[in-house]
Amino acid sequence: MRRRLAGVICALMCALAVATGTAGTATAGPADHNQDPVARGCASDAYTIAWRNVGGATLQLRYSPRCATNWLRVENYSGYYYFFVKSDARPNEVVDGSGYAGVSGTHWGRMAYAPGATCIYITASLNGVTSPFYRIC
After folding, report:
1. 48, 61 in Cβ contact below 8 A?
2. Which of 67, 98, 72, 73 is nearest to 86 (CA)?
């Protein structure tokens, strides 16, 4: 009976570990390139390092020190959007994304791996207005 009880407890603990485990846990490194910052847990320590007004909305460039990644975000926005981010750490790869936000809220693009002071290029289109390309180091 004790063995069976111990087996049941072990099975429950293993199931709990799987259920609460890796999803949303921040990892650092190139594996985060072209991934969703919220799903990967990188948004939790992120902060805005630059911003630009585009089409009447404020476009934010976010950085996560733990994940060494950058991405674009816009808050209180509804409408079509397009984000483009390119990192000098991966010069042959572009992270971009587009969509339609029918409800006003916070929307973000995928991450570009850019450790430390790595330079990145960004542009975005919001409300039909496209920003110039910005190089941010």
Report:
1. yes
2. 72
Full DSSP string of 84-126: EEEETTSTT-EEEEEEEEEEEEEEE---EE--TT--EEEEEEE
State percent of the chain over pLDDT 90.
Answer: 71
d(CA 127, CA 64): 27
Residue type, 11: A
Residue type for position 74: V
Q: What pLDDT, on the 0 to 100 scale, is given for residue 1?
A: 43
Question: How far, in Å, are 12, 61, 132 from residue 49 at the CA level?
Answer: 43, 6, 18
User: From CA 12, how far away is CA 6, in angstroms rounded?
Assistant: 10
pTM: 0.78
